[in-house]
Specification:
Elements (H helix, E strand, L loop, with lengths): L10 H25 L12 E2 L3 E3 L3 E3 L2 E8 L4 E6 L4 E5 L5 H14 L30 H22 L10 E3 L4 E11 L12 H7 L2 E9 L9 E7 L16 E3 L4 E5 H5 L4 H20 L3 H4 L12 H8 L1
Antiparallel strand pairs: 1-2, 2-4, 3-4, 4-5, 5-6, 7-8, 8-9, 9-10, 10-12, 11-12
Length: 320
């Protein structure tokens, strides 16, 4: 667990630092919110996990493009543009208001107009960035551990995604809820979502869940689970899903959340963490898809292999 793949995480010890990262990422997420057209299910807002941290998708700014990187190795936010501009703001535990002002100034120096002001989403209370002067904790070692865990989860999620030929999201980080997620779709419309997510418009939630999903993800803890954990759920929740039997050590159904949960520690301490996690992803997806009546034969394919596409003719012959 010290080789850079599956580091030790301690939610209780790191809670203040997790809250700082979450608050900072909320500001960064406002750039694609204001400068990219809406993509189905809000995917344009998500951040990509990179070798150095979490990066926005490029946004168009005049005749050029720009993107922000939350650099977990150097503890800074980096702005780069196709015009050749590169600038950064150091992260050291400054207040949200101070970081907001610094990032706004950095964008202006690069000639970027979109306003990144406002308030955080999916948290309560949602203190406006310019007014949030609460003290913040900073721990570079903890940040690198968080990043390593997200990198490892992203690698396995991306492999898991390769087993599905239906519509699937990338593996990407949502800054509102501060979780990494990969979502599969059956192709069928879902009942209108009731909404009710704190400080998130109901129409955004309803668009995110416009179609049936089997979703899995990873977060650092909180919201009723006081440890880092992986999760999986279906929307709408299939009948009988709580009775599904799981083989993955440590995995269980949480009735309050309505999700399958697998503690991160159970994965990190497994003899083969990647195998343990992908086993959880497969068996929870299968439990959801079977009970929801998905057309699995049409949606599933052999898992990805390096440099080799799957044999379409062979697969069709096998299906008859």
């Amino acid at each position: 667990m010290t080789d850079g793949r599956w580091p030790v995480l301690d939610y209780a010890a790191d809670k203040a630092m997790i809250e700082t990262c979450h608050a900072y990422l909320q500001i960064i997420g406002k750039l694609p919110t204001r400068a990219r057209v809406w993509t189905n299910h809000g995917w344009q807002l998500a951040l990509r996990v990179t070798p150095r941290g979490f990066r926005t998708y490029p946004v168009a700014v005049g005749d050029h493009e720009a993107e922000l990187l939350f650099d977990c190795l150097a503890s800074e936010v980096v702005l780069e543009t196709s015009a050749g501009f590169r600038g950064s703001v150091a992260l050291h535990g400054q207040t949200v208001a101070e970081l907001f002002q610094s990032l706004t100034g950095l964008l202006r120096r690069a000639g970027i107009a979109p306003d990144i002001g406002g308030s955080p989403n999916e948290v309560d209370p949602a203190v406006p960035f310019q007014s949030d002067d609460r003290p913040r904790k900073w721990d570079e070692g903890a940040l690198r551990r968080f990043h390593a865990a997200f990198r490892s989860a992203d690698r396995v999620f991306t492999h898991f995604r390769s087993f599905f030929v239906g519509k699937s999201s990338p593996s990407h980080l949502f800054w509102g809820s501060f979780d990494l997620a990969v979502t599969r779709f059956s192709g069928k419309e879902a009942p209108l979502h009731p909404g009710g997510v704190p400080n998130l418009p109901d129409r955004a939630t309803r668009e995110a869940y416009s179609h049936e999903v089997a979703s899995a993800g990873f977060w650092l803890g909180g919201g009723g689970i006081e440890e880092a954990a992986f999760y999986a759920y279906g929307y709408p929740t299939p009948d009988g899903i709580a009775e599904a039997s799981l083989e993955t050590d440590g995995a269980y159904w949480d009735a309050q959340l309505g999700e399958f949960i697998l503690p991160y520690a159970a994965v990190a301490m497994a003899d083969d963490p990647d195998k343990a996690l992908i086993g959880f992803l497969h068996e929870t997806y299968e439990a959801i898809a079977e009970r929801a009546g998905w057309d699995r034969a049409a949606l599933e394919i052999p898992g990805g292999r390096l440099g080799r596409p799957y044999d379409v003719a062979k697969l069709r012959d096998m299906r008859g």
